[in-house]
Design goal:
There is one protein chain. The protein contains 14 helices and nine strands. It is α/β, with parallel strands linked by helices. The chain has a single domain (5-244), classed as Alpha-Beta Barrel (TIM Barrel), CATH 3.20.20.70. α5 (81-91) packs parallel to α7 (122-135). The protein is globular. It binds flavin mononucleotide (FMN). Residues 20-23, 25, 45-46, 75, 101, 103-104, 145, 176, 206-209, 229-232 line the site of flavin mononucleotide. Flavin mononucleotide binds next to α11.
Length: 288
């Protein structure tokens, strides 16, 4: 069996830099930009597995890629094992793995049984992972992104879940170190540390990483194998290359990539607003 490009990243890099799944934002053009600035692995935005398999329109709206867009993980929201596996089979030749979203705390997702709602149904997460693993062999990866389980015994419950996921064959695990109810509280680095020492598969830590130094500090404390950034990389897509704020070359790159990949004006502008957040003075930002 060929080696997994994704798992090789963890062998080849002391710390794997990851662009988070971000609805509306972690699309092809933005992934292309972050890869130029030392981002090793990119996730697509979360895609609803059921609409993806039923609708050609959903597929063309939600998933665009090209040959250079690798290594790539496609993230799905799913609650039915067969649908998750079919969606995974449909994207398998265009990416390196699929990820199951078990962390989205938004009310629509919780109501519909997606995202963090699954944290209360570990047996269902198990079935979802197993179905993909049984139908698509390695080196294709199957991974899960969770938040910390919200129970009285936070550590015991989260660690039991992580161990179960490892047993059923996940390739790596991402943990956003907050519970589903937490929004702006500091991340729970002790939980990350405890998880890391309890599992063998690579662990990607997530939450509040805004700089390369922040990423390395998190690794030093927790021992995590990768770091995932969402808001930090939106406001500075060059953060993993060591820049404290968005450098001018990165803005130029964004303009050129947007032209080449037919980005909508709204998406083009949104990203510029994020990137220039800390670069432009407030008066200019308001005009912009
Ligand atoms: C605009 C935006 C969109 C997001 N979309 C997703 C998503 O599609 N899937 C997911 O698992 N998490 C999503 N998240 C959560 C992030 O991946 C990440 O877990 C969270 O923002 C914490 O990381 P940060 O502190 O680096 O922002 C999103 C976050 C933001 C800000």
């Amino acid at each position: 069996m060929a080696d997994s490009v994704v798992l090789n990243l963890f062998n080849e890099n002391k710390l794997v830099n990851v662009c988070a799944p971000m609805v509306r934002y972690s699309k092809l053009a933005f992934r292309t930009l972050t890869r130029r600035y030392n981002c090793h692995l990119c996730f697509t935005p979360m895609i609803l597995a059921d609409s993806f398999i039923c609708s050609a329109k959903a597929r063309s709206n939600e998933f665009t890629t090209n040959k250079e867009d690798r290594p790539l993980i496609v993230q799905f929201a799913a609650k039915d094992a067969n649908q998750f596996a079919i969606a995974a089979e449909m994207v398998a030749s265009y990416c390196d793995g699929v990820d199951l979203n078990c962390g989205c705390p938004q009310s629509w997702a919780m109501k519909e049984g997606y995202g963090a709602h699954l944290l209360d149904k570990p047996h269902l997460i198990r079935d979802l992972v197993l179905q993909v693993r049984n139908r698509i062999p390695g080196p294709f990866t199957v991974s899960v992104k969770i938040r910390i389980v919200e129970k009285f015994e936070i550590f015991r419950n989260t660690i039991e879940l992580c161990r179960m996921l490892e047993k059923v064959g996940i390739s790596f695990l991402t943990v956003h170190a907050r519970t589903p109810k937490q929004r702006h509280q500091p991340i729970n680095t002790d939980a990350l540390r405890e998880i890391k020492s309890s599992i063998q598969v690579p662990l990607i830590g997530n939450g509040d990483i805004k700089t390369n130094d922040g990423a390395h500090n998190l690794q030093t404390y927790t021992g995590c194998d990768g770091v995932m950034a969402a808001r930090g990389i939106l406001s500075n897509p060059a953060m993993f290359a060591g820049y404290a704020t968005t450098p001018f070359t990165c803005v130029e790159d964004w303009i050129a990539i947007s032209k080449q990949t037919n980005v909508s004006f709204q998406c083009f502008h949104h990203h510029l607003v994020f990137m220039l957040e800390k670069v432009l003075p407030k008066s200019k930002r308001l005009i912009f």
